[in-house]
Amino acid sequence: MKKWLGIGLMVLGLFGLVFGAVAAYQGVPGPNPEVERGTTPMAYAKGCGHANGGMMAAGGGVPYMGLGVKSTNLTEVSIDPAEVQDYLGQVSVEEFTNPRGVTVQKLVYDGDYVGKVVGDYDLSELDVYAAYETLNGVKVFLAYEGNIVGFVLMK
Fold it and tell me: Which of 41, 62, 65, 95 is in the most buried spot, having the most CB atoms within 10 Å?
């Protein structure tokens, strides 16, 4: 009797694995009209997207978003692009290539790490995407042709 029960449970487990694998495999992902594809990192910073693996913080905000404060406490500020370009002209760039072969430019101001740019961009070609007041200064997101490629913290 115990033998048949063991065999039955083993067969049931095997069917569960097979049907679970078939159910989990959806093939090549296609467009999903229920997911808003136009969500930007700024929307994440404002708590309007699914960041950190889809986990939202209590209160509707994304926990930190790399800004040093909770997103519910962020204040977007306007900043003069000429002031940002002047600041970028004063930073030194330490360039390296990560293990994936992507160029990363580490921005250093007066010996302190203040930001980075992912890609081989000339800093003078970057535009201001958005700026946020943080506890440590103004964090400016830098964009190239409308796509965010890095940030700099202006103290």
Answer: 62
Give 152's strand partners: 115, 140
pTM: 0.56
- Sheet containing strand 127-134, edge to edge, reads 75-76, 127-134, 137-144, 147-154, 112-118, 103-109, 92-97
* pLDDT by position in tens, the chain (length 155): 777 777 877 777 666 665 565 555 555 555 544 544 444 455 544 444 444 444 444 444 444 445 444 555 678 999 999 999 999 999 999 999 999 999 999 999 999 999 999 999 999 999 999 999 988 899 999 999 999 999 999 98
In the chain, where the domains are located: 40-72, 77-154
Report whether 111 contacts 94 (CB < 8 A): no
Nearest to 119 by CA among 90, 98, 138, 139: 98
C-alpha–C-alpha distance, residues 155 and 139, integer Å: 9
Contact (Cβ atoms closer than 8 angstroms) between residue 118 and residue 104: yes
Cα 116 to the center of its chain, rounded Å: 13
Bridge-based pairing of strands 127-134 and 75-76 is antiparallel
